[in-house]
Amino acid sequence: MSKFNKRSLLTKVGVIATALTVAAGVATPAQAGVTLTASGSTAIKNLLDVCIPAYQKDFGNSVSYGGGGSGAGRAALTAETVDLAFSDGLYSSTDKKPSAFTYIPATQFPLALMVKLDGFKGTLQLSPASVAGIYAGKITKWNDPAIVADNTVVNAKTKKKTVAKLPATDITVWYRLDKSGSTGIFTAWMKKLVPTVWLTNGETFNTVFPGTIPAGTFQAGSGSDGVANGVAGKDGSIGYAESSYGTERKLFLVSVQNNMGEYVQPTPAATAAFVNSFTAGDNGTIAIDYSSKIKGSYTIAGYTYAMVYTAGALKNVGTQAIVRQFVEYVIGDCATENSARLGYAKLTGTLLALANNQILLVK
Prior knowledge:
It is a single chain. By secondary structure, this protein is an alpha/beta fold. It has 2 domains: 3-108 and 299-359, D-Maltodextrin-Binding Protein, domain 2; 111-276, Periplasmic binding protein-like II (D-Maltodextrin-Binding Protein, domain 2). Helices cover 39% and strands 21% of the residues. It has 12 helices and 16 strands. The chain has helices spanning 3-26, 45-59, 70-79, 128-135, 145-150, 181-193, 205-208, 223-232, 243-247, 268-275, 317-342, 349-359, and strands at 35-40, 62-68, 84-87, 101-116, 125-126, 152-154, 161-163, 172-176, 218-221, 237-242, 252-253, 255-257, 263-264, 279-280, 286-287, 301-309. The strands form 4 sheets. Strands 1, 2, 3, 4, 8, 9, 10, 11 and 16 form a 9-stranded mixed sheet that branches. It has a 3-stranded mixed sheet with strand order 5-12-13. A two-stranded antiparallel sheet has the order 6-7. A hairpin with a 5-residue loop joins β14 and β15. α1 packs antiparallel against α11 (317-342) and α11 runs antiparallel to α12 (349-359). The longest helix is centred in the C-terminal third of the chain and has 26 residues, at 317-342. It is elongated and about 65 Å long. Residues 1-30 have low confidence and may be disordered.
């Protein structure tokens, strides 16, 4: 039996024990057939779409996940209209927060740049400067000299240059309409690496855009699906979302230049190489330095947190036991079996230990 299956068995036993304890008079018992309500990040949704039915099959409980974006998930947790939420970003210092909650790192993911470019063959490469220029509306065609330079390869021995043939197609830029943790990650990355172009960062794209968003060539999509569908529907489009949204639509995934000068695809391994170099903060939070120089790393990357109530919120003990069971399943068994094939990077080592310690606070 694998350590993850053992863990799931222990979780099941723990929930049964909780049910017996609370049935003796402490609180309402946990029981099979319960449906948890959750909302939030669309970046993690493709993973949850696999985890939730598998969890229901194994445990007899289910989860209704509404997505809606990280901002919507945090708002729902504050309003206490959900049992848990998922978010790629944190509450801000001015946000209203629940009385007692914690963050649990649930998965790591690459934020891929997805492109539809008819007639182009090969791998598309972009430097941070080119990405920021595109998203600031300064680079407007795919054969712009900056993009051509990114895709010019020099043979180390012969010094001969091979220049990619890029079409003169207009660029249509897709961004998130809703308050989005993915937008927060993306704009923080641009601000850190190209601060002369991107002056600020945040989760609402149109409030942090440097200037006035160009009409027509910039389009907004709701959720990761909205952005990915927009890109897939128009030649010359570029958008950002967790990588599985691009692969399932057969879009180009851009190789992004990292801080070692390498152009790297948004793979789980390259993501883990970058984000596993993290700094732990308060209450289960994690900080990433987007300027870190790590060989083979993909740098537009982040975490999705499970956001859960803790003891001070005085939630039903039986429900909390099921919340703990579900989060443990997502991080453990489901991540082990499905993360890599869906484009996510499962938690390991110190990061997994941090998540496990945070799970113990769900009471």
